[in-house]
Design goal:
Blueprint lengths: L4 E3 L2 E3 L3 E3 L21 E3 L16 E4 L2 E4 L8 H12 L5 E7 L3 H12 L5 E5 L16 H13 L5 E4 L7 H10 L4 E4 L3 E4 L1 E2 L4 E2 L5 E5 L4 H12 L6 E3 L6 H10 L3 E4 L2 H4 L3 H15 L16
Parallel strand pairs: 3-16, 4-7, 7-8, 8-9, 9-10, 10-15, 15-16
Antiparallel strand pairs: 1-2, 5-6, 6-14, 11-14, 12-13
Helix pairs in contact: 2-3, 3-4, 5-6, 6-8
The structure holds flavin mononucleotide.
Length: 302
């Protein structure tokens, strides 16, 4: 049985990766599961300068999910490039470096720095406020996405995956804009903007008032968006949003994802990778599938 996936010219030994921000820089999960079991992992979102993140509380539980406003706490792209990535390069798995910027210039500088590391892929998070354009997230406007992607491509020698925000009216317009800008692949979905209020104190639970919703509650939205995007562009997709087990991974692949990321589900079951891999093998045997690539996008619509 073949479970290898060629994604943007990089061979992944299996389709399972992790979602940025839910797996730290890998070491945090080492005691639960061997990181080399994954095809790759997306590291915590990096910014040009290190960030302390938002004040607590940063996480609120919701029905079937969580709301977070961590605020991109990270040591900064240079610490990652000089000290963290050289250690991660020793692992038998691919590293996807995830970057977030507040200006086009920040993205360009980060793309250059990360291009000089052993990271396999650069994932560009565009769910960040564009501070020079009134703070609206880069990922909500097609023209901005196309411009940002084409500028970053000029400074990026690694495959560039654009990570889409679901907080938009038309996800396919944004996906097409990233494709026109020269993206090599797409990942989706990032978190859905949400809010939880404590009715006794009348105050929002999160110190930042609002945050990003993730976990199984978002999965049907993510599946719908992956399906729509897969049919709108030719780019390969990393699918994510609420994966809790191997069944969910297959669902994302049928919708059109080539790789699938485990995220919030790892907080519930940090050893999920083992169950996921067993499920995929069993599914392939039950359905007589020799090559996992054969199920990508193969949902049969009613
Ligand atoms: C605590 C937390 C931190 C996150 N940090 C990042 C980040 O730094 N960069 C990014 O692109 N996405 C980040 N995300 C979004 C996830 O990578 C993923 O897109 C989203 O949570 C949906 O997948 P899930 O439901 O499986 O978690 C974060 C999510 C969570 C829950």
């Amino acid at each position: 049985m073949n479970t290898k996936i060629n994604f943007c010219g990089v061979e992944f030994k299996n389709p399972i990766v992790t979602a940025s921000g839910t797996f730290g820089f890998g070491a945090e999960y080492g005691q639960y599961a061997d990181i080399s079991e994954y095809g790759g992992f997306s590291a915590k979102g990096l910014t040009r300068q290190g960030r302390e993140g938002n004040p607590p509380p940063r996480i609120a539980e919701t029905p079937s999910g969580i709301l977070n406003s961590v605020g991109l706490q990270n040591p900064g792209v240079e610490v990652f490039a000089n000290y963290i990535m050289p250690e991660l390069a020793k692992l038998d798995t691919h590293v996807i470096a995830n970057m977030s910027g507040n200006t086009v210039e920040e993205y360009l500088e980060m793309a250059e720095i990360l291009s000089n590391t052993d990271t396999a892929i650069i994932e560009m998070n565009i769910s960040c406020p564009n501070v020079k354009q009134g703070g609206l997230a880069f990922g909500t406007d097609p023209a901005t996405v196309e411009h940002l992607t084409s500028e970053v491509k000029k400074h990026c020698s690694k495959p560039l995956v654009v990570k889409l925000s679901p907080n938009v009216t038309s996800i396919t317009d944004i996906a097409k804009a990233a494709e026109s800008g020269g993206a090599d692949g797409l990942s989706l979905i990032n978190t859905l903007l949400g809010m939880v209020i404590d009715v006794e104190s009348r105050k929002p639970i999160l110190a930042n008032n609002m945050g990003g919703l993730s976990g199984p509650c978002v999965r049907p939205v993510a599946i719908r968006m992956v399906h729509q995007v897969a049919n709108a562009v030719k780019l390969p997709i990393i699918g994510m949003g609420g994966v809790m087990n191997g069944r969910d991974v297959i669902e994302f692949m049928l919708a059109g994802a080539s790789l699938v990321a485990l995220g919030t589900g790892l907080f519930v079951n940090p050893k999920m990778i083992y169950e996921v891999k067993d499920y995929i093998s069993d599914y392939m045997i039950r359905h007589n599938i020799d090559d996992i690539n054969d199920i990508i996008g193969k949902v049969e619509l009613n």
